[in-house]
Amino acid sequence: MNHDLTLCRKAFETIESYDMLKRGDNVVLGLSGGADSVALLDFLCSLRQEWGLVVHACHINHGIRGQEADRDQAFCEELCQKYTVKLYCFTEDIPALAVACGRSQEEVARECRYRHFEALADELGAKAATAHTLSDSVETVVLNLARGSALGGLCGIPPVRCAVVRPLIAVTREEVEDYCARRGLSYVTDSTNETDDYTRNFIRHHLVPGLLRVNPGAQRAVGSMSEVLREQRDYLERQAALALQRAERGEGYDVASLSSEHIALQRLAVSALLRGQGVQVDRALVERVLAAFGVERAVLQLRRGLYLCLERGLLFFREGRPAKEEESFCQPFEAEKVIVFQGKTYRFLCYDYEQFKNIENNDKSLLKNCIDYDRIKVNAVLRTRRAGDRFSHPGRGWTKTLKKLFNEYHVPPPERGRRLVLADEEGVLWVEGFGADRRGAVTGLTGRVLQVVITPCEGAGTIEKKGGECDEGRYFKGTDHRAGVEK
Fold first, then answer.
1. Is 197 annotated as a binding residue?
2. Would the annotation count 34 as a binding residue?
3. Is 345 helix (H, G, I), strand (E, B) or coil?
4. Is 33 assigned a ligand-binding role in the annotation?
């Protein structure tokens, strides 16, 4: 072979610069039958004797173009026989797959190609070589630019990605066609490439020629830009990895530490974490995560069964939906006070024992929410349940944690955080739905009785009374239950 050909010279330089191939390597080539892949097959086969390369080929029939797709496969089979290269063929119904997952045929076809291609390379213990050219990379940059891509999208197609190498990435499409002409190589043409039905075709036919009118060397210029941007991206990604190391706390990451980094590193660090979980990352998702840095608790569903959680200043991943944290509520208790919580109004009415007996005679259903007022200690609060809260039944003699009590009486988990508790420094006195604890129960020795009246309220957490307005957690004029002082 004439190694003075432009394609050969540039391919050798690329292979050397990126250490793509070594003597004796096993290589599997993605072969479509088009000019690019035919040129790469010819080039690699020319190195078999000198470099001791073992060359295989992989062809995917996408099932998109009917007889034309079958023609391409037959062409590849004949070509590989000519070069004595083993060909592996795979067939996919891309149109059906695209409809099933609601994505474009281009995108689904690309994923299928790489899935088969990389699996075969792994099976053969080979490096995977694709025939992407500089022209392909320029089209990718223009496409990503139009989509508003960040730095990564302007880096073009990488010369090397994991086990995938691209020896022709510095070669233009025109140089490929010149190589085929000089070498007398035939190839097939995909008829869909001639239309503007696909976005990449429109870019190839209209936008890239426009760039070449502005600058005949535009493809080289874009290629150089992408190379510089790849270097900058690699540096920033290393810095982001260090930022993650600094923030690592066991199985999670310290949000304050991540938030102290430059915003560019925050975005890259979050992207790296998401990709590490196999999540498809876009700018909107990254911004959602960053926005959650400013809240005490957040749960973001990344995909079915995988959640990103922010809690107690830590960011971590969890399989399965995390239990919803109960709303924490705690207000100082005062008699004659009105509180609104979770769509209910709580009124605390105080009676002497004689008044209470009239209530007892008229409506025994109200007795459940009556408490011995004089047994309430200083600093009593009305709050949601807490770990370790215990309730002693006044008539049955048993004592249970609220957790066990709610479980036994089948209180739905979402409802448990909506039940209020009256407690003082000695413990629970009353539990919504269960009544007074043994310590707070009304007896024949009771002097004053506190009645809790619970009613549903209208509106979003606000009620209106003659004396003013009551927002959730605020109260009207009342009396201090210990001193009898009017408020």
1. no
2. yes
3. strand
4. yes
